[in-house]
Amino acid sequence: MRIGLLSDVHGNLQALEAVLERAAAEGPELLACLGDIVGYGGDPEACLDLVRERVGTCVQGNHDAAVVDPRVRRWFNSVARIAVEAHAEWLDPADVAYLAELPQALNVTAGSDLLLTHGTPGEETSFTYLTDSAQAARSFRAFRERFAAVGHTHVPALWEEEPRGRGRVRARAFRAEPADPDVEGVLDVTFEPGTRAIVNPGSVGQPRDGDPRAAFLVLDLAARAAKLHRIPYDVAGAQAAIRRRRLPEVLAARLAAGR
Question: pTM surpassing 0.85?
């Protein structure tokens, strides 16, 4: 089964449209979203419509939760809080109800192949960031599936756990080439038999690794392989949407830098 993984759309319609178009060409059997459809961007309503129409399944991110529950916003910085409060006002009750019903973790395959969650596996309710190998090692002990897919950091990442008996965890380089922001970048990786892996496809709508291109990943469970895509999109259009709706300027400016 080939599964297209996307995460952290953050109300960026232009990036989401570009990713969905490219994902359709890849032809995975399922598209799955790892959370944060809303927050930051200028088009949360249209992004929610597209995700519900085109994405087979989705888990809840912290910005999705913050739209539903104001108590979650207390952990946000001022800019993030301004945006999520605006989105909560713009969305209709059906949108909010959809976000409220999203699970925080989900196994999407028959068997024990793939766990989806926004934050660190085993720490879903606190939406913690998975950022290093020591944390990844603890995470592997918290789930039984062969693969886990996470989001939240806005940075593509990959950790592997060696076969049981050794259990060592290592991070692998996970940058798509070429690095030219005006062309698509691709990275193909394979996994040795017996290894388990945690993958982070990066962010569709607000990359933070210095690469402004939208990111998504196709995971081939049978072939034990993954393909990371970085897709150019209409950054100026996404910036215009943020400015049109009078959200903080930093949210528009950062898109061009991928920070």
Answer: yes
